[in-house]
Amino acid sequence: MTEAVDFETLLRRALVPIEPPDELTQRLEDTLVELTELAADELEAWELSTMRDPRNWMRPAAAVVVGGAATAALVVVRVRRRHERRRPQPGLVGLAERALRDVAEEARRVAFRDR
Amino acid sequence: MEEGTRTKAQLDEEFSELYRRHLRDVFSYSYYRVGNHHDAEDLTEQTFLQAYRHFERALRESDGRPLRPWLIRIAHNLAANFYRDRSRRPEAAMEDAGVISAPHDTESLVEGRDELKRILAGVQELPDDRREALVMRFALGMDNREIARAMGRSDGATKVLIHRAIRQLEGKVEGYGDHGRSSKKGGAPRDGATRSDGGPRG
User: Fold this and answer.
1) B101 shares contact with chain A (CB less than 8 Å)
2) Global pTM?
């Protein structure tokens, strides 16, 4: 029994969770934000087979804007992640200002794409 | 709540939460499945894209149960397609995962690396279903029920699968110890386990 537990401890040490690289996170979040802008019928038509070639993942033809609200959640994800990556800020005011700046910047990016 | 009345914004918000919670799980699973970072990134990306497409239906059908098994199942199916399409097999490059990620003190470094390498090599040689069950249990921390759902098996069958996988792996690792390190005949993994208890990670 003890031996089994010991071996499981070793297994836990060997099979550690792997952190995804930042480039993947950034790329994936960009893609997901773009996807929220696709109309539902386009998503239906977007066959999985086209996804096998990585060059097709990012640019399914002619994206149609569904609405600003749809992208809000993913914008929030991005802003949160940035805060998680950053070191603690000197004060609450600075943190709040930075958060506001991030939200505005992210919203601007999304809005800019809508044009 | 009213399942049918979710707006697209609500769906997107729930998907964001799912993504945030399980990105590391999907990447870890993918990495241990394909054995290298590059393909693991592709697989992770495809998994979330496909999950996004089918998210609304998955939510409807989940009856409030966690969606992690569903995500892992998508990754599993995509990995199967990946190998079929490209006639590839997993690479034996997993050894850097635990060895690099787990901190060691200097005294146990060499011994620890050997042990972890033997275990990872053994994991690579297990049949697919056993290897995946172990990855889900130990790398992702999934319980039997979640693993059962991800693998489309009963809870009982999953419990047996994991038990047999651990036993088989233990036998393999002992075998490596016998052949690879004659001065430590027989008990290398268990000795290692004892030493590891005093190491920096419990």
Assistant:
1) yes
2) 0.65
